[in-house]
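Supplementary Data S3. Sequence and structure tokens for construct A.
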Amino acid sequence: MIEALKAKGIKDASVIKAFQEVPRHLFVPPGLEHKAYQDAALPIGGGQTISAPSTVAAMLAALQLSPCDRVLEIGTGSGFQTALLTRLVAEVYSIERNLSLIKEVREKLIRAECGTAQLRAGDGMLGWLQHAPYDAIIVSAGTDEVPSNLADQLKPGGRMIIPLKGRINLITKTRGGLRFRELSSCQFVPLLPGHTGS
């Protein structure tokens, strides 16, 4: 998998190291462990997927994360990206709309020795105001526009990576507003309001 990331142009040493340290097979459904280290998206149930490693790596590298950063993740999903973030930054706050996934991810993070993230079930479009502002926000679901709550919770100079209209965008918050840079085409599940499960 590491060679595949390098072949795709991932050069960020800290991101590569995080991929080396986090066992992806712990975050895929039973029966798919043999595919865990392929550079491919895999289903995790509930209409969701664990993104291809190269996609996750490119998004993380684009954020240019620092070890002291506070990061908000929208869409915990399988928890694999959450685990990588715990290896890259000081504070990770992750929101997932599916409560049943949150329960599974907590256990997986502990098994992977990445149990420092704070998780909660909720509406990702609302962000997590209690811990704002954030140095970076990473959104793992597609939308047509940037949720205003997320933009508001980003620090001045902060970065957000978000799939917009089928394109991954890197957004920087400046004094004059938000600056957008398209990175690549993408396919993500839609960013939906509210939350599910009990």
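Construct B, processed identically:
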Amino acid sequence: MKIFKLIFFYLIVNFSALAIGIWLMNNGSTSDWYISLVRAPWEPDGWVFGFAWTFLMICFAVYLAKLSTLTNSRKIIAAVLVQYFLNIIWNYLFFNQHDIILGLIDISLLTFVVTFILFKNLPTMKYYSILILPYFIWLLIATSLNLYIAIYN
């Protein structure tokens, strides 16, 4: 029963972070600024982002809930908090402030933090680590999209 309460808790936290990020992104991908950018040819259609983030945050909630039952490391808690901050602030930097380079630095740091969480907990989480892999892969793609925009704009 404890695991379900933790999953529910992390779902609220994850989707709250997404909501704050959306709120901070101004008009986001529909803004004239973003539409005018030279973007990567492998950029997915807009609906993919909503679907992907929903799926990723559900998987990440289950991952964090399981991790919470197995460890109480302050390093992990700190890394997860940093992950939330970096995830939220990227929307503001990139879409609201149009700062492509700071956005790239932020998303690179976010990718590093999620990589740290994944590999630091691999021995503990074992096959549950598959739940964080989609997030990790998505961040690699998102980082490449941001890098492409930084190079070509």
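Residues 46-70 form the longest helix (25 residues). The chain has one domain: 2-152.
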